[in-house]
Amino acid sequence: MDNDFLDDKWKQWKQTLENDLKTHKSPYLKDEMYRFKHSSRNDLNKNIGNKETTIAFIQKMSFNDNEIEELEMSATISVEKTTTTEEIRKDKKINPHHVVSKEHTPESPVPSKTLNVLQEEELRKSIFDEIRRGEYNVEIAPSDLVDFGGQKAFDMTHQLFIMQEGTVLLLFDGSKDLDEPLPEYPGKNITSADILMHWVNSVTTYCTDDSGLQRIQFVATHSDRYKGNFEKRRKELVMQLTTRFKKHEIGSHLLFDNLIFIDARNKDDKEIDRLKDQLVQLAFSQSSWGKKMPLIWVPLEKQIVDLKLRGTSILRMEEIEKLNRLNEDLMMDDEKLKFFLRTQHAIGKLIFFDQDELADFVIIEPSVLVNALRSFVTDEMFFPSENYHILKILQQDGMLKTTDLMKLWNQDEFQYIFQNQEYKDFLVKILLHLDVLVKPKIDYRDVNFLPEYYIVPCMIQTRLDNDYIEKYLNTNKSICMAYVLKVQMVPPCILFRLIASAVGIWPLKVYQGRKMIFQDIATFVFDETNEFSIIMQGGKIVVYFTNSNSIKEIQSPKVASVQECLTIAIISITEFYQLHSRSIDDLDNTRFDNLFELKHGAACKIPCFVNREEELQFPKAGLWKCQHGQIHEVDYLWYWDSKKAMADISPTVLTKKPPADLLRKVSFAVGIDGAKLGLNLGIESSVIEKMVIGNRYNIFEKTQKILDYWEMLCYSVTVKHLVDALNNVGGRGLETIVEYYR
Fold first, then answer.
1. Does residue 402 lie in a domain region?
2. Does residue 51 sit in the same domain as residue 107?
3. Residue 365: inside a domain, yes or no?
4. Final residue in a domain of this structure, among 627, 645, 663
5. Is residue 396 in a domain?
6. Residue 357 falls within a domain, yes or no?
7. What is the rounded CA–CA span in Å between residue 81 and residue 144?
8. DSSP per-residue codes, 303-362
9. What pTM does this model have?
10. Domain endpoint, select from 292, 314, 346
C-alpha cells in the first residue's frame, strides 16, 4: 500500500485511468470488448490440446482451454454466477458483448503487490463527484464462470461454489446416446444420462426456494461428427433428454428444448455465439439482475475491481479497511463493511469468512481458492507426472504430507497465487475450515505416526477390502443409527465432511495393518474396546457403534456422546451449504431447514431402522421385531439418545462440585483429550501448555493435573460443567460419571 510501489508502469496505468474516468472511454475496455465479440473463438481454437486442468473463474462468456479438454469427457459442469456488482442504474437492454475479460493463466506475469488505485485525490474525486450527482452508471456487467470437470474427484469442490442465483452449464458428448455405456468407466455400465442426473441433483441439493433455483443449460458437443444430419442428431438428443428429465421435480429449470450443439474445434461455429447470447438472456432473467445496490458500496467495489485487474488476489483486512477509510463521506462503518464483504462473498465476487483468523484476509480473486483446491483435489489425468507418488498416497490412504502440499503449491503455475508463506498459511486454514483438509487425531499408542500430514477424505479411492464388516458390524457386537437426508441425492461431500469432522476428534482404527479409512467407510477408536464406523448406504449415512467383545458391553453414555458430536457436525455442514446457496435477500435469515431425520435401529445384515414415533411407543425393557423377522432389545435404541443416557444422573447431582475421586477416574477415561478438555473447562492455554509440555508425567497424570487445577479455580465448578466439556471433546469419560452416580 506504500507509495514505493508506484513504479513507472503503475504511473502509466494511473494516468490512463484518470483520462478514462474523465472521458468515460477506455481503449483497454474497448479492446477487450472487441476481442470478446470477434476473436474469442480464435482464442478457443488456439488453446486446443492444452492438457492442464484449470478450474478458473473467468469474466467472459466463452470457452477456455480446460473446457475444450473437458469436452472429450462425458460431462462437464460449469457454474456461471451473474451479478450486478457496481450497479447503481443499469439498462436491461445493455449490449450483451459488453463484458470485461480477465483470466489468469500459467503464463501470466506474477502479480504486483497491493496497490491503492484510488489513492490520488484527483482520481478519487472524479468518481465521487459522479456518484454524488447521481451520474455514475455502469455499462459493463462482469460475469464469473467457474469451470469444473465432470469427474468424481470434483464432487467435493464444486459444492463450495454453487450459488442459488446463477446459471449452470452441463456439457456432454453429443456423439453418444444418453443410455450408451461410457468407455471411461469400463465394467460399470455408467452412461451420460447417469452422470447428468447426478449433477442436476447435486447442484440443486440445498436450493429450497424454487423461484431462486439455478437455470441448468444443457450443451452437447462433437457436432462436427454430424455435418450431414446436424438437425436430426439434435432432435434425437432432445428426445432422449426429454425422456430422462421430463418428470424431474425441477424440470422447468432444465433447458434443453432448443439444445445447443457445438463443435468446439471450429472457430466459426455459430452455436458458440448462440450459447453466449443464451447466457446473457439467462443473466437478464435472474432475480439479482437490475437489483439496486447501496451507493456507499461503489468506491470500495471499484477499488477492488481495479486491484484484481492489476493482478492482486488477496488483501489483508487492514488493507481493505485502509481503502475504505480513503473514501471520505462514502466510507462504511465496521458493521456495514462486514455486510458488504459478506454480500460480495455470497454472489461470488470475493471470498470472506468472518470467523476468527480467517477474517484477517479477503480473497478478492476467487480463482485463488479454486486453484489451491485443484492442485491436489483433481482427477488422475490432470495430476503432474513428476508428483504422481503424492497422488497414489492420496488415493490409497487420503494422506497428504505438509511438505508435499507445499511442493504442489510451489509449482510454477501456482506461483502467482502463493506469493509468500503468509498466504499459504491462510489458504491452509480455509481448507481446514471447509473440511477439505483435516488434521488427524493421533492415538498416543501409535508410535509410527507421522505428525506432519493432513487427511483428504474426498480423494480416497480405495474401497474396503477386508472382513471387518462381516466380523464386527452385526447384531452380536454392534448397534446402529442413520441420518436419513431429506434430499433427492446425498452429495458425497456431506459424507466426506462428516468423516473429516470425526477424524479431527477420534483416532482412526488400524485393522489388519492399515488405517480404516476408505471411499465407502471410516472406522474410529473410541477407547480400547469400543469403536464406531460411518458408512454411506443409499440415501442414508449409517453409524455403527461396536464393542469388540459383545453388544452387551456397549455403554449408553459412550454411544450417546458419539451421536451428539456427529449430529452437531452434520447440522453445521448442512447449514453451511444452505447458507451458501441462498439468495442475496436471504443472507440475514438465521433459520435453516432440517435436512435430515435421525433413526435408530439394529445392525442386521441389511440394517433396519425404526421411525421415531414408533420408537417412542416401545417400552424401554421390551423387544421389537424388525423387517427381517429378527427380535431385538428396545433398550439399545435408546442408547443413542443423549438425554436418556444422562437420565440416571439427578438434576441435584449436576449442580454439585465433582469429588476428587471422580476426577481421578475421569482422567483415566479421557486419556489423550486432556488438553482439549481443559480448554473447554475454561483453563487458559498457557497454563495447559505448561502442564502438558513443561512436565514429564504420563498422559493420565497430565489430565489429572488439568482437572485438579480446574477444580481449584473457583467454587462454582459443577458436574454439569464437566459433562458439557466432555461432550465437546468426543464424550470419553461420560460413562464414568454415569456409573459413579448410578
1. no
2. yes
3. no
4. 645
5. no
6. no
7. 6
8. HHHHHHHTT--EEEHHHHHHHHHTTGGG---HHHHHHHHHHHHHTTSSB---SGGGGGEE
9. 0.66
10. 346
Greatest Cα-to-Cα distance within the chain, rounded to the nearest angstrom: 88
**209: its cell numbers:** 426456494
Contact in structure between 117 and 126 (CB atoms under 8 Å): no
Are 661 and 594 in a shared domain?
no
E strand or H helix at 701: helix 699-713
CA separation (Å) from 72 to 139, 174, 183, 217?
A: 36, 10, 12, 18
Per-residue pLDDT of 253-277, as tens digits, reads 888 988 999 998 888 899 999 998 9
User: Which bin fits 49, alpha (ψ -120 to 50), beta or left (φ > 0)?
Assistant: left
Q: 723 pLDDT band (50/70/90 cuts)?
A: confident
Residues 6+ apart with CB under 8 A from 633: 623
Q: Which helix (H) or strand (E) holds 169?
A: strand 167-173
**What value does the mean pLDDT take over residues 86-109?**
34
Chain-wide mean pLDDT for the chain? 74
Domain that holds residue 699: 651-741
Report CA dihedral (270, 273, 278, 280) to the nearest 10 degrees: -170
- pLDDT, tens digit (0-9, with 9 covering 90-100), for 454-482: 989 888 888 998 999 999 999 999 999 99
- In terms of domains, do 98 and 127 share one? yes
Number of Cβ within 10 Å of residue 3's Cβ equals 8
488 phi and psi, to 5 degrees? -65, -35
Question: Rounded CA gap, 32 and 356, in Å?
Answer: 40
Beta-strand pair 510-511/514-515: antiparallel
Alpha-carbon span 381 to 27, nearest angstrom: 41
CA distance 534 to 729: 18
The per-residue pLDDT for range 638-679, each reduced to its tens digit, is 888 766 656 667 778 888 888 887 888 787 777 667 888 888
Helix H or strand E encompassing 485:
strand 478-485
The pLDDT assigned to 438 comes to 86
Residue found by looking up cell 477487450 in the block: 32
- Contact call for residues 61 and 145 (beta carbons, < 8 A): yes
In 578-612, which positions are buried (b, 16+ CB within 10 angstroms) versus exposed (e)? bebbbbbeeeeeeebeebbebbbbbbbeebbbbee
Residue 394 DSSP SS3: helix
In this structure, the answer to whether residues 224 and 287 fall within a common structural domain is yes
Query: Other CB atoms closer than 10 Å to residue 18's CB: what's the count?
Result: 14
Per the structure, the count of domains in the chain is 3
Q: Which amino acid is at 461?
A: Q
Residue 79 neighbours by CB under 8 Å, 6+ apart:
145, 146, 148, 158, 161, 162, 163, 166, 167, 168, 169, 203, 214
Q: What is the predicted pLDDT for the residue at 40? A: 35
Q: How do residues 276-331 score in pLDDT, each as one tens digit?
A: 899 888 888 777 677 777 888 988 988 898 888 888 889 999 999 999 998 878 89
How far is the C-alpha of 24 from the C-alpha of 17, rounded, in Å? Answer: 10
Q: Which amino acid is located at 201 in the chain?
A: N
Task: Give pLDDT, residue 153.
Answer: 59
Does 167 share its domain with 252? yes
pLDDT confidence of residue 419: 73
CATH of residue 685? 1.10.533.10
pLDDT, residue 529, reads 93
Q: Which residues contact 97 (CB under 8 A, 6 or more apart)?
A: 33, 36, 37
Asked whether residue 609 falls in the same domain as residue 690, the answer is no
On whether both 57 and 194 belong to a single domain, the answer is: yes
Q: Does 589 share its domain with 664?
A: no
pLDDT tens readout for residues 405-454 = 999 988 888 877 777 888 889 999 988 888 888 888 765 444 444 458 89
pLDDT one-digit tens code per residue, 171-221: 999 999 999 998 877 877 889 998 888 888 777 765 555 545 667 899 999
